[in-house]
Amino acid sequence: MKVIVVGSSHGGYEAVREVLADQPDAEIQWYEKGDFLSFLSCGMQLYLEGVVKNVNDVRYATPAGMRAQGVSVFTETEISSVDAKKHSVHVIDHAHNKERDEQYDKLILSPGATPATLPVPGNDLKNIYAMRGRDWAIKLKQRTVDPDIQNVVVVGAGYIGIEAAEAFAKAGKHVTVVDMLPRMLAKYLDEELTDILTKEMEEHDIKAAPGQGIKSFSGQNDTVTEVVTDQATYPADLVIVATGIKPNTKWLANVLDLDDHGMINVDDHQKTSADDIYAVGDATLVKFAPTDGTKSPIALATNARRQGRIAGKNAVGIEAKTPFVSGSSALSVFKYNFASTGIKEGTASQYGVKTKSTLVTDTFRPPFVPEENGNAKVWFKLTYDPQTTRILGAQVLSTQDATQNINTISLAIQVKLTLEDLAYTDFFFQPGFDRPWNIMNLAAQQALRDLGKV
């Protein structure tokens, strides 16, 4: 069997690994259009802040390591078209300026996505950057130590934008974050928690400018100098646009069924509309567990890796279905750590779900443990169906790392646990680690009181 895998980030990497594990004698060809295999953009902040010293370490695999396992690896090599009827792809070898066609038995596509651009005047000025991919990582790193860069404007207050803002604030730059939504990180946390993080950012010279739309970029000598919104003008020596992504699928429009946004339609096995072709990663939708399978664009590495494994299994004849996901994610913002999963108050309306939430605060460890010994305040917000008490989502925030609680809530969502289940779930207690009642227990118990179900 000959399997061709296109794309080398999370989904493509996992597909290759799965095929290797399940059918070691398969012929695997792995294609990457860029000159670097499996760069991980989710590790970019660690590189920009110097935690990871070498940009080449921010990866899953090397060509030499994969070739040693029998995989034929091709970098600087583009798959420009697919002929589904002939089971062939057209290959452009940019390194050697050659072209050829390759046959396949199974094709796994992980085409990924490209950073969204803003269709406003001045978007072609110099010093307007993106925050995705190794090439941008290297350019951004150079700008963190550039003395001519003093004012940085980040457009977009999601995870990527906040990571960029923190990296440049730590590099001594004045940062402004502009977003159309009314709050920073509004897609991930509700207002009680974003207020805390916004204050923390402001204390580190990051100015929040929410609820504003970009009107234009202006500049001198073809280089950006200002960002103009519908409310204000901000000086900018560097602009980082982090307003989302768009699927890299135009080249597949006449081959596969795509939705109105260019996302590849796949079934529960990651199969596309064409025989023997599978698709994974940011160019596909996932099924959202809190709503029992609503198709949603949730671009997370965990989702892509899960899809890659499932596609690899099905490609070699092992039937497997991709499970529903809760959309779990986490981030640090200076001294705070937060995580969230499932539905929040701020996102319930987009899913048409009626919810109720309960916010509790407590200490990370028993009160007798001094703060300097690892005790700190914890905010935990639990979201649920007020009629059935089914758990639908949660958020947690603390200067301690309480984020692993969210993994438990993700599982609770997927197996449809209720507040009654969670209220007295058995979690361990030891004063050096946590409290007698886990924060999740406390939240569920309080939620039952709020509903009059004690």
Task: Label this structure with key terms.
single chain; 454 residues; alpha/beta; FAD/NAD(P)-binding domain; Enolase-like, domain 1; 3 domains; 5-stranded parallel β-sheet; 11 helices; 23% helix
Number of helices: 11
Could you state the CATH homologous superfamily of the largest domain? FAD/NAD(P)-binding domain
Level-1 CATH class name of the largest domain: Alpha Beta
Oligomer: single chain
Portion in beta strands: 25-35%
> Rg, please?
23 Å
CATH architecture of the largest domain: 3-Layer(bba) Sandwich
Mind explaining what this structure looks like?
The protein contains eleven helices and 25 strands. It is an alpha/beta fold. The chain folds into three domains: 2-114 and 246-315, FAD/NAD(P)-binding domain; 117-243, FAD/NAD(P)-binding domain; 337-450, 2-Layer Sandwich (Enolase-like, domain 1). The chain has a five-stranded parallel sheet. Strand 5 and strand 6 form a beta hairpin. The protein is globular. The mean pLDDT is 96. GO terms for molecular function: peroxidase activity. Keywords: FAD, Flavoprotein, Oxidation, Oxidoreductase, Peroxidase, Redox-active center. This is NADH peroxidase. Its cofactor is FAD.
